[in-house]
Amino acid sequence: MSGKCIKPCFVIILFLFIACSPGNQQPLKGKWLLAGKIAGNSPTSYWFQKNGNVVAPWEERLSELRSSGKYIFIDETHIKIIMNEGPYKGITFFFEIAKLDREELILRGSIQDIPMKRAE
Predict the structure, then answer these.
(1) How does pLDDT run across 40-63, given as a tens digit for each residue?
(2) CATH of the domain at 45
């Protein structure tokens, strides 16, 4: 391989990496609080951190329970949350990001939509 290709090849690989990275990942980061009623026992908030970690606390009978794990983007509009600590340890959630802007997030699950509002 000649030295002439190294720089252009690097630029092309860098461009492909940037072009394929999920666009929703940046606005998703932060703390989101439940913004409406939902059926079943679900976290009252999700804290998406920039390093791919997620914390999911919820209140139950005046106490707080907390699970944590990792989140990854499957594609532009779908995420996978893998819980590895807490009461939901070993459970994987799949959500479609039905809506995401600066103030509102709607996670669409197989059973219902989970409306959330930004806390921070």
Answers:
(1) 767 788 999 989 999 998 776 666
(2) 2.40.128.280
Contact 119, 33 (CB under 8 A): yes
In-domain check, residue 44: yes
Strand runs labelled E in the chain: 30-34, 45-48, 53-60, 63-75, 78-85, 92-100, 104-108, 113-118
Question: Is 8 within the bounds of a domain?
Answer: no
| Residue 2 belongs to a domain | no
Residue 18 within a domain: no
* Overall residue count recorded for the chain in this entry: 120
Contact 80, 92 (CB under 8 A): yes
Confidence of residue 34 (pLDDT cuts 50, 70, 90): very high
Query: Phi and psi of 21, rounded to 5°?
Result: -75, 145
